[in-house]
Specification:
Strand content: 35-45%
Number of strands: 49
Structural class: mainly beta
Radius of gyration: 30 Å
Distance between the termini: 32 Å
Shape: globular
Helix content: under 10%
Largest sheet: 22 strands, antiparallel, barrel
Length: 1012
Amino acid sequence: MTAIRPASGAAVRAAVRNSNQPEPALAQHKWRTLGIATLVAALASTAQAQKPADEAAGGGGSKSSIEEITVTGSRIKRSNDFDPATPTTVVDANYLENLGITNVGGALTQMPSNISTFSPTTTGNSSFFAGSIIPNLRGLNPYFGSRTLALVDGKRFVPTNQGDGLDLNFIASVLIDHMDVVTGGASAAYGSGAVAGVTNFVMNRKLEGGKVEADYGETQHQDARDKHIGAAYGMSLLDGKSHLVLGIEWEDSGTASCLNRDWCRNGTGYYPISPGNYVLGSNLRSTQASTSGVFFNFNPTAATTLQSNAAGNALMPYNIGLQPYSAGSPFNNFPGGDGPSIYQHTNLTAPVKRDVVTGMFTVALTDKVNMKLDASWGQVKTINYTAAVTSNFISIAPDNAYVQQNPALAAAIAPVGPTFLDKLWDSQVNSQTNVETTVRRAVLSFDGQFGESSWTWDGYYEYGHTYRTQLVQDNLHLNEASLALDSVLVNGVPTCRSQAPGGSLPIGYTADPTLANGCVPLNPFGTAPISPAAKAYAFGNLVENLTYTQNVVALNTTGNLFDGMGFGAGPVSGAAGVEYRTEKGENIDNPGVPSNVASDYLIQYGASFSGKVKVTEGYVETNIPVFRNMPGADRLEFDAALRESRYDNQGLAGTDGTEAKHNMTTWKLTGIWDPVSWLRIRGSKSRDSRAANFRELYYEQLIGAGGLFGYCDPPTTQRQQPCNWTLRGNTALRPESSDTTTVGVVLTPKDLLPGFQFAADYFRINIKDAIQQANVQAVLTGCRAQNIAADCALLTPLVPGNYDKVTALTALASNGSGYLFKGIDFTTSYLVDMGSGRSLDVRLLATRMIDQLYQPIPGGPFVNVVGQTGTGNSFLADFQPTSKWVGNLTATFSQGPMSITGQVRYVSAGTMNYNGYPPGVALPVAPATGYNMATNSVPSYEVYNLTGSYRFSNMRSASLQLFGAVDNLFDKAPPVAPGVGGFGATNNFGGTNATFFDTLGRSFKLGVRMTF
């Protein structure tokens, strides 16, 4: 376990001097003073650590027993030498301070073991999880869920979204004592979700006095401005028998425009030169699109076409750009032309406003019984200003009302058959995504001791409530917009064709015909303001309200079972507990809006649904010391844990009401062997599991035929056979299981090289029957290519028995696919006493990912995605590839009240897309079609950061610290790292990958901290 502890330069020197002292002085002093490890060691998921022993090393007294510490990943309390066999990272408040981090999520996003799929810098253009910071160890999170369990003081926190994830914005950083990150499975200790690991945030319940911190940061481009204030106060009451801690935190961070950066203004990205063949280009622009409306020219050699002027009453030339292009598809982008830059509306970070209030009260009811009451409230808001949804292939007939009123437009209209128009609505509607989440949580807990024995107990009741609303403003309707755009003149007045005398619905119209009622014509030409009536019909506000409630009751006990096996190993200890949890969610789509209108959007969240889950669990754990201070076995011990869980899932309103029950068994075995005092060999083997979350169980979404998604084409065609989609969760989903293995070695040669540590840990995570969200392509392939009867039953063929042409499709969330991730974590640290009150702490952390294997289709071949650092993932991917090497090198120099830290973060060279092939190589067959890419590599990348602080301590009872930080010191631009996916070129984040590379550029932060 890697520990980060506060220390001064003198403490470091003392640590190095005392490294030659015999036990127990070393055990009681060394690890307290080695707390100068403030940065990369905190990020390590592999290095060893020890806590200082209690005043009574045996821990037999009542005070000592109750104050023993439970290590994250285990339920057994230990008073000393409790470092676990599972690699664990401990990050305390000083780590956050030394890097100038004011949000605890900022610490987690720097850890190589954590792949930051969802953070403010990766969700600046997202309609999902905008501004959220969600832990994602090893990149194993499904898109709408988490395989990393997040805890607060060892207890579950109510999910803050439809999945089972926790947005770390709701954790008050000003009250954090330390954060434990377990990078191995821990389901046997904590239950569902701890597949990739656990993040446990331990709050400072013993704060005495007050603390205030305030800081401000921005980039050199004067954007991404971040204002933050945190304050906390703690005091003893009732003659020291009780303690009260209060904390409040406020933060307001702004967005950053991509086009403010030179590397983004270049407009670099992939574009197709023929089907399946892509090349990199610059100055990429939207093809044949403008805010005034562009008439399509399908001639592949054409260089120009026509567009409407801003007034909508005349024609103007339009430069198409580079030719030849791929069939004139409006979904492709190409170099040059008059279209807007593809990054015109790209935000490099999501703006976040957050308010968090936390209170913690502890009181000793008797000498052996304590009561704790915790309460917290938090609110997080994000507004993403994004591009409005584009209208592609607007059919313009010769008798269109607005063409008739503006005859100059008629020259662009074909006399026979429709003419197609592409229209960007950005200048006429205010498109934005608003996300607001409010979380309330309260925990009442008790703990105590059984008589004078070593056995202690604790129990708690937790109530959590999340209310989350998502709004997409001015979202374009699918069918209502197409009806509004098809207009004719009736007595000189523009009228929807469907409402005109003798009018009819468009040929091939398959949607609800009642949508035509109340149709108001919409003028696609020019940029004049849209009438309120037309806007209200063709556009709408997409709203989704989530209410989620969690109740937890748990009881735990731990103590010594018997004196042990001799050999000086100590007593055999055990733990046992039970937990009962209920969770109920209600997701309301567009409240008050008729269902046919609520589902009539090009982009939508889903239909209303609700459901509940009841969980009953019990666990046992034992720790068995075998040898201690013996020849060839300075220490040998084992730990075993077993948990049995029962899940009862019940669909409510918006579902078919199906109920399903499942059992889940998890276990873990760990061992530690120290042949000599300076060498440790450790390992663990566990069966972990994750039960289906709220969305996976009960979700439903209706997607109408046509638009961006609603097609059921055979593999040889694209967007030619419109069909209706129904995407659903599945109450019958089984928990997915995972087998995790870790094996590691730790070196601490304190006699030969004082202050030096090295650790290397191998991990292997094998997930079986992984829960997959509803997959349309899997259903189509399963029926058409594999003749799977269950898949064919989900299709509605146009001709009975013939599945070439399908009018409707239903896809369910399912079990089946697998993941196999393997790698090695390395940590090296070296503390140097430089004399004269000076010290240097140099640390290196690196992770080598060996394999990231997953199955695109259940039962199919595995695909290795390791090394992809481009953005070409599949749509809403349920995994995140990472580079083969990620490393952090940190050096902290301290002298008295001054501290300076330099850091370099490294990402190795990678590929744009794991499905990419060089030109001329034959593409493989399904399931991975692949893409020919003229360039399929991403260079290595490193970025340098610098922080510094100075503390003024001679201020009577107060202390003042000034600090500053410069991130991306040399303003290094991110590498070109776009990609290609199932929908073509995936040119996101300005043509790079914000998960691995800094997109903001050089950033500054200044702040002050005061304690009193």
